[in-house]
Design brief:
Layout (H helix, E strand, L loop, with lengths): L1 H6 L30 H24 L1 H24 L6 H32 L1 H16 L3 H7 L6 H20 L1 H20 L1 H9 L5 H42 L5 H11 L5 H17 L3 H27 L7 H37 L11
Helix pairs in contact: 3-4, 3-8, 3-10, 3-14, 4-8, 5-7, 10-11, 10-13, 10-14, 11-12, 12-13
Length: about 375
């Protein structure tokens, strides 16, 4: 035995008679390498594509429920962050959030009450307004060959007017038919917003404690804080700038001789939250109002031109310079998101496109692996 130890360099021989280095490799220690070919990757991407299509179909089908609930979550996140700031003055977060929600609902109901009669009169006079606008546009459109071909070979300008007036009632009734679903969705939004604000703190704790690892809990806290900060900064900045736009638009409408200038300012503020579609509808509305008020074409179109140029400068110069300092989102991604959500949920989807984009980009920035920090030599 001593001789064997000396021959082995003083190391004991294992019971199996083999050296530890020469022990056979067990199957559990073997690294199994799976090689995938092009067919495997095609199957993987096909499954992902089918999942995306199924999810998109579900989102589109569940629009009456998902749209107001999503809006409630976004608005509730902003109001919850503001309520947390009110907590510094000794106000509980739940009470502060509900107070802000009631204040928002009160302001909304006040504006709806003040605008109910003018909007009702507008719907009542819609056929007459449309007829008067077409009559004012006929001298201009009559010069275009396409208009003459559409109106008839004889150049009868009343043909197109009669056709439009024939379907004006159908258009108004179709717009009015969407009032009832809109009211139901508003009620769902109010209920979801109140419940979200009441259970926001407990929901936040549940999401944080869902993971057993400390690192993942800290990551969840960072993601939630980053989302609240991004949404709060976006909505506060956009609201201030669009409110200034509404005040200037009210002045433009007043100087331009349009009736109900405060209503023009309010709709300018509200429509600015709907990208592309809002400014288009508002510009056309100002143009129609100007044509109904003034006989001269240039003077009639000045309010619409002024609003469009002001909105163009604000959206392309002021907003990117202010928001770009903290919110770095690719413009192409924003444009694609606006097109997608407008196709899914209409004008409300276009309004939610930017907040949803910010939420997705914030989560991506927090979960993606960070490159190692470079250390200077020495």
């Amino acid at each position: 035995m001593n001789l064997m130890k000396r021959l082995r360099g003083g190391r004991p021989v294992p019971a199996s008679g083999l050296e530890p280095e020469t022990a056979p490799e067990t199957p559990s220690r073997r690294q199994v390498t799976i090689r995938r070919d092009g067919f495997d990757y095609a199957v993987i991407w096909s499954i992902i594509g089918l999942f995306v299509l199924a999810a998109s179909a579900a989102v589109y089908t569940m629009k009456p429920v998902l749209m107001p609930v999503t809006m409630a979550v976004v608005v509730g996140t902003v109001l919850g962050a503001a309520a947390d700031r009110l907590g510094r003055f000794g106000i509980p977060p739940v009470l502060g959030g509900l107070t802000l929600a009631l204040l928002l609902a009160s302001v909304t109901l006040f504006l709806v009450n003040r605008l109910a009669d003018p909007v009702a009169n507008l719907f009542t006079q819609a056929p007459q307004i449309l007829e008067g606008t077409l009559q004012r546009l006929q001298p201009l459109l009559g010069r275009v060959r396409l208009w003459e071909l559409t109106a008839g070979s004889g150049g009868d300008d009343k043909v197109m007017t009669d056709m439009v007036m024939q379907h004006a009632g159908t258009v108004v009734s179709f717009a009015a038919s969407g009032v009832t679903p809109a009211i139901i969705q508003i009620l769902v939004f109010i209920a979801a917003l109140g419940l979200f604000l009441i259970g926001r703190v407990e929901l936040r704790k549940t999401l944080i404690m869902a993971s057993a690892h400390r690192e993942r809990r800290l990551a969840a806290i960072r993601i939630m804080n980053a989302i609240e900060a991004a949404l709060g900064f976006y909505f506060s900045t956009a609201s201030l700038m669009y409110a200034a736009l509404g005040v200037v638009t009210m002045g433009i409408a007043f100087v331009g001789g349009l009736a109900l200038a405060p209503i023009w300012g309010f709709f300018a503020f509200l429509s600015s939250f709907v990208p592309y579609l809002g400014v288009t509808v508002m510009t056309l509305a100002l143009a129609a109002g100007g044509l109904m008020t003034h006989d001269a074409l240039l003077i009639a179109l000045l309010p619409a031109i002024g609003f469009f140029l002001l909105h163009l400068v604000m959206e392309n110069l002021l907003m990117p310079s202010i928001l770009g300092s903290r919110l770095e989102v690719n413009p192409f991604i924003i444009f694609t998101a606006i097109i997608f959500w407008t196709w899914m949920w209409g004008a409300v989807g276009a309004m939610l496109a930017m907040p949803l984009c910010l939420i997705a980009m914030t989560i991506f920035e927090e979960v993606r692996p960070k490159p190692p920090e470079r250390q200077l030599p020495g």
